[in-house]
Amino acid sequence: MTAFVFLACLVAATGGLIFGYDIGISGGVTSMDSFLSRFFPSVYRQQNERFSNNEYCKFNSNLLTLFTSSLYLAALVASFFASTVTREFGRKWSMFGGGLIFLIGATLNGAAVNLLMLILGRILLGIGVGFANQSVPVYLSEMAPARLRGMLNIGFQMMITIGILAANLINFWMAQIKGGWGWRVSLALAAVPGAIIAIGALALPETPNSLIERGHEEAAKAMLRKVRGTDQIHEEFHDLVIASNDSKAVKHPWKKIIERRYRPQLTMAILIPFFQQITGINAIMFYAPVLFKTIGFGDQASLISSVITGLVNLVATSVSIVSVDKLGRRALLLQGGVQMIISQIIVGILIGIKFGVTGAHTELSRSYGGLLVAFICVYVSAFAWSWGPLGWLVPSEIFPLEIRSAGQSINVSMNMFFTFIIAQLFLKMLCLMKFELFFFFAGWVIIMTIFVALFLPETKNIPIEEMEFVWKKHWFWGKFIPDKTLQVGRGDVAV
Q1: Please, which contacts does 365-374 make with residues 24 or more away whose CB atoms are closer than 8 Å?
Q2: pLDDT tens digits for 396-448?
Q3: Beta bridge pairs of residue 492
Q4: What secondary structure letter does DSSP report for 215?
Q5: Quick check: 439 and 302 in contact, CB under 8 A?
Q6: Where is the signal peptide (predicted)?
Q7: Are 407 and 268 a contacting pair, CB within 8 Å?
Q8: How far is CA 419 from CA 78, 135, 155, 303, 451, in A?
Q9: Are 358 and 239 in contact (CB under 8 A)?
Q10: Once rounded to an integer, what is the mean pLDDT over residues 337-346?
Q11: Which pLDDT belongs to residue 491?
Q12: What is the pLDDT of residue 107?
């Protein structure tokens, strides 16, 4: 790995900051009394009637969840437009557009004087997230050497976790500001990560894949030499040109991707983001302060607990960075799945013992609250080194060039769709299902862990242009890949 590649991937990965900051900021802001009393007065009254309401239901409001979830609905739609921009104009310009729009949305949110202005700002933030999440993982996968692709791609998830932790810390500090305007600072500071990726994108080189795709072969060859740090790039360049020619022959990638031969990749692009969200992680990350207040923590204690989970999330993601290209994708997903199942069941039991099915108000002792936070951290750490980063890495590396932009758009749109569903329904589900909600999520983690064991092949250290060979060798997906001669690196391999 050259210093050039490392720095390019580091700058590109900052696109994850905007996604992470938003995940962390929304839950903290919606737990601030000054914010609730201004925009959601009915929720403010309801959550303060502690002794007369079901604790599970005191934040249950469709309008409140719409504030959080509207961003992800906008990101879903934007990801389809981002596919065209990424393909026709390059990865860097898609990142630039995403960062710029996110910056405008953050400014609007910070200056909001009514709910309409607040939601409009959230929609602009969502458009920015949709563009960044579509282009950044593709950029990282294309720039990285095959044997280091996992580590560099997980830089995107690392930036997401940094964004979450930064948002949690800012919420904690802003909640202590007298005068009730701290929420404005929390929302407006989203402009900082937006500006970072927008300015950073202008300095980024374009990937060799994108240059070849857009007909700049000499520039692509020069960039590939710079990226790899050697003149011995002829074989890789030859493979990229072949892949690009195949890509150009595809006039309708959205129609192409539904063909039988791409069934494995299409399945993963739909199910992996679904599984990533049905773990329940974003329900906890979005509403961490709200959740902690619901289960008996005070205002400051809830924000401190969310900072702790954000810190655990950051540290655990670094474990994935150093191990993903050694242990492989499957090992981390399987281990993380088992750990999440156990911790979610324990969390559900602990909440059930304390609040039962009635949700009667109960003060938590310091030791009991600490135990609850500890097992939530065990769960968060498992997600952070498995489904968190790999939910973005695996889909970004499995698509051939001719359908890569379309495939990544499907991946992002599915991720945003299921994120929207979870964000919109979590508080209502908590009200209806109570502590059993954690058993619900644990059940899905069991299903997805079995799915990985049976249907996800190992993709570590495999060049992207040779990925089809992996599917052909798989016991189930092999029957979908037509028998032909696959061009694999240094020669033809008959399959």
Answers
A1: 369/296, 369/297, 369/301, 369/305, 372/295, 372/347, 373/292, 373/305, 373/308, 373/309
A2: 888 887 787 788 788 888 988 998 888 788 878 888 888 898 899 999 999 99
A3: 487
A4: T
A5: no
A6: 1-16
A7: no
A8: 15, 18, 21, 22, 20
A9: no
A10: 95
A11: 44
A12: 94
Cα–Cα distance measured from residue 150 to residue 449, given in angstroms and rounded to the nearest whole number = 20
Chain mean position to CA 279:
13
* Lookup: tokens for 286: 């979005």
* Amino acid letter for position 89: F
Instruction: For 144-247, list the strands marked E by DSSP.
Output: none
CB 167 within 8 A of CB 125: no
| Per-residue pLDDT at 380 | 92
- Structure-token match 């007065």, residue found: 41
Within 10 angstroms of residue 320's Cβ, the number of other Cβ atoms is 24
CA-CA distance, 42 to 123, in Å (whole number)?
23
Q: What is the mean pLDDT of residues 349-364?
A: 74
Mean pLDDT over 253-266 rounds to: 88
Question: How many Cβ atoms from other residues are within 10 Å of residue 488's Cβ?
Answer: 16
Residue type, 398: I
Domains in the chain, start-ordered, CATH in brackets?
Answer: 3-494 (1.20.1250.20)
Give the integer Cα–Cα distance in Å for 382 and 339.
6
Q: How many C-beta neighbours within 10 Å does residue 487 have?
A: 18
Residue 230, number of CB atoms within 10 A of its CB: 10
Q: What is the pLDDT of residues 188-222, one digit of tens each?
A: 999 999 999 999 999 889 888 888 888 888 888 88
What DSSP line would sit under 289-333, residue for residue? HHHHHHTT--HHHHHHHHHHHHHHHHHHHHHHHHHHHHH-HHHHH
Range 210-228 burial, b when 16+ CB lie within 10 A, else e: bbbbbebeeebbebbebbb
Which residue in 158, 164, 138 sits closest to 324, CA to CA? Answer: 158
Amino acid at 205: P
Cα–Cα distance, 139 to 149 (Å, whole number): 11
434 near 355, Cβ under 8 Å?
A: yes
Report residue 390 as tokens. 């790999």
CA 213-219-224 angle, 5° bins: 85
Quick one: which of 57, 129, 61, 60 has its CA closest to 99? Answer: 129
Percent helix, strand and coil across the chain, each rounded to 5? 80, 0, 20
349: how many CB neighbours lie within 10 A of its CB?
A: 14
Copy the structure tokens of residue 182: 């701290």
CB 465 within 8 A of CB 243: yes
Integer Cα distance of 51 and 48 in angstroms? 9
CA 240 to CA 128: how far, in whole Å? Answer: 30
> What is the C-alpha separation between 99 and 18, in angstroms, rounded?
8
Whether the CB-CB separation of 269 and 410 falls below 8 Å is answered with yes
How far is it, in rounded angstroms, from Cα 53 to Cα 61?
14
243 SS3 class = helix
Report yes or no: 247 and 402 within 8 Å, Cβ to Cβ.
yes
